[in-house]
Structure formats: structure tokens, C-alpha cells
Amino acid sequence: MSARQARIGVIGAGWWSTYTHIPGLIENPHAHLAAICDRSEEACERATTAFPGAAAYVDVETMLAETELDGVVIAIPHAAHYDVAARCLDAGLNVMLEKPMVLTAKHAADLIRRAEAQAVELIIGYPWHFTRTAVRAREVLGSGELGAIQHVVCTFSSMVVEFYRGNDAAYQPVFDWTVAGPGDVYARPELSGGGQGHLQITHSSGLMFFVTGLRLRRVSALMNSFDVPVDLVDAMTVEFEGGALGVVSSTGNVPVGDAGQLDVRAYCEHGYVLLDAIAGALEIHRRDGSIERDQLSADDTYPRFATAANLVDVCLGREPNGSPAEFGHRSVELLDAAYRSAANDGRMVEVSNLYA
């Protein structure tokens, strides 16, 4: 093993690990896939058969005790994120934790404290944060050249409704996975929390917070599940610290195979920014009438291998954390407050009350 390779363990041998993270790590010349862990012996065996060479474990504590690691990728059902991530951070490991970071604001804040205490990095699995357009939008809005942000619109439409019905076979022609699909995990609230919020708005809101730098003050939300067991359509009215107002909305019911839409629009005192993540397009409109445009190539619009690659680079000291946990935390605050609000007929929920 090269001295420049980071020793990485992957916790969770389901769909996204076997479709994205493990193949990406194997192809990364700076990474050594040291271990695969899943509490399902069948899933673990299936993954290690498809990707031989890594040690196999069905218990996280045993893996941490027996395998020398620099970092771990955690891609397991949402409800299990907090406990497993806390163990790995306490063990002094850099962690790449899939989105949503966790299900409650308190747990998100606690994981950040644990990472700081161990002086390790906690990366959240948001690939769009690694696109040139998102980084440029963040740079411009953060510079203050457009003035204060006054209004934000964040919209996400996606093709996930069959996941909420437990019908993962509908997506085999789209993703063409060869090891495992997600099964019915996203249709089971006890495993995944909610539906569109925890599976999809975590992406769009994470990107919104990443590019705008805003912090949430309070939110009112309505959600409708229609004919599925979790929320399918979500609509949120948001007030940020400093007075900016926003609308965050999403539906999971677009046709299978449709790329959908993910837009973040930030309207400021002296111009505005339009970020179309699906199309990979960015427009920056300035008060003088000039427009700065950027367009990503089709291959660069969704760099799904980027988050695990960033973990490897962080472990080796090659790059900083490109998707810091702070933005995952802000997304969790939004969703925690939104689910509470929707359960109370849209009552406004203050972020401060999430920590009471």
C-alpha cells in the first residue's frame, strides 16, 4: 500500500455505497478500501464479493477495534446516522456522513461538537457543493458585492415517488445498479425519518445554505403524502436571521427518468444569483445590467464521487473539507422545524425552540 493512500472504511453496504462510494474509492489512487461493515451479513457478503480485498465486519465497534483507519464513509438508514457517526468521531476518525446529516437539530449540533473535540473533519454527502457553479455562487454572495440577501427561492422536483412506494425496481433502468438497490428503506419512516424532506430537501436546502451562508430563524411548513407513507410534497415559508425571507418547496412526483429541477435563487440589494444545479447553469445579475454566466459540462453537473474523494484528500491533508457539517446542521434545523410545523397545521416554529 502506498504511503500516500488513506485507509478508509465504509459503513453500510447498501445501494448508495455499492453504487457510488465503494467504486469511487477503489478507483481513487490515493485511497485504500480497508473495511466494509454492515450489520446484515448478507449485504456485507454481497458487497465484499463484488469488491474483494476489504475486511468484512457486521459490527462497527469490532471494525474500529481491529482495523487501522484514517476515515470512514457512513451510508446507512437516516435514523441510524447519529449513533454510528458519534462512535466514529469519538474514535478520532474523519467522517463522510451521507445526507441528511441526522434527523434532529440537537444531534447535528452534538456531532459538530464531537468532531471539534477530536480535531477531525465531518463532511456531509452533498455532491453539488463540489461544483464550480455552486462554489462561484457562494463566493459572489459571500463577498457582499450584491449587498444583503433579501429573498431566496429554493425549488426541487425529483423522480422519487416509487421509492416511497417501496418499488425500487422502477429505477433499475435509470441507475443500472449491479450489486443492490435501496429496497423499501425510503418507504419506512422508522428507518428514513420523513420522505421528500429527508431524502431530497436535505439536498436543495443544504445547497441553499452553502451558497447563501444564511442562518434560519423560523419556519412554517405544510406537507402532503397523498398516496405514499411519507411526505411527497412539501412547502415551507422561511425567515432567516437578518430578515431575509424565503420559500423552500419540493415534490418527488415527476416521471421516472425525468431529471427534475433544483434551483436556488438569491435576490439581493444590488442584483441576484440564479443557480440551476441540475442543468449546471449559473447566472449572476448585477445592478449595472451585466450578467455573468457559467455552464458546466454534462459530466460535471453531479459529481457523485466527490464527497468520498474529499474524505480521502482531507485524511491526507491534500484538501480542506469541501462540504462542512455546518451546512448539514442548518439543513437539519430547517427540516426538524418543518416537520414539527407540518405536524401542527403549519404553526411557525422558532429554531431556538429546537434546542429547548
Overview of the structural elements:
The protein is an alpha/beta fold. The protein folds into two domains: 6-126 and 308-317, Rossmann fold; 129-301 and 329-355, Dihydrodipicolinate Reductase, domain 2 (2-Layer Sandwich), CATH 3.30.360.10. It has twelve helices and 15 strands. The protein has helices at residues 15-27, 41-50, 60-66, 81-90, 105-118, 132-143, 161-164, 172-175, 189-192, 196-212, 306-315, 325-343, and strands at residues 6-11, 31-37, 55-57, 71-74, 94-98, 122-125, 149-157, 216-224, 233-240, 245-251, 261-268, 271-276, 281-286, 291-295, 349-350. The strands form two sheets. Strands 14-13-12-11-7-10-9-8-15 form a nine-stranded mixed sheet, with helices on one face. Strands 3-2-1-4-5-6 form a six-stranded parallel sheet, sandwiched between helices. The mean pLDDT is 97.
CATH class of the largest domain: Alpha Beta
Which stretches are poorly predicted, pLDDT < 50 over at least 5 residues? none
Helical amount among residues, as a percent range?
25-40%
**Helix/sheet category:** alpha/beta
* Share of residues in strands: 25-35%
Largest sheet: 9 strands, mixed
Q: What's the SSE pattern?
A: EHEHEHEHEHEHEHHHHEEEEEEEHHE
Shape: globular
Mind telling me the CATH superfamily name of the largest domain? Dihydrodipicolinate Reductase, domain 2
Distance between the termini: 49 Å
Counted beta strands: 15
Let me know the average pLDDT: 97
Oligomer: single chain
Going by CATH, the architecture of the largest domain would be: 2-Layer Sandwich
User: How big is the Rg?
Assistant: 20 Å
Number of domains: 2
Main sheet strand line-up: 14-13-12-11-7-10-9-8-15
CATH topology of the largest domain: Dihydrodipicolinate Reductase, domain 2
**Total helix count?**
12
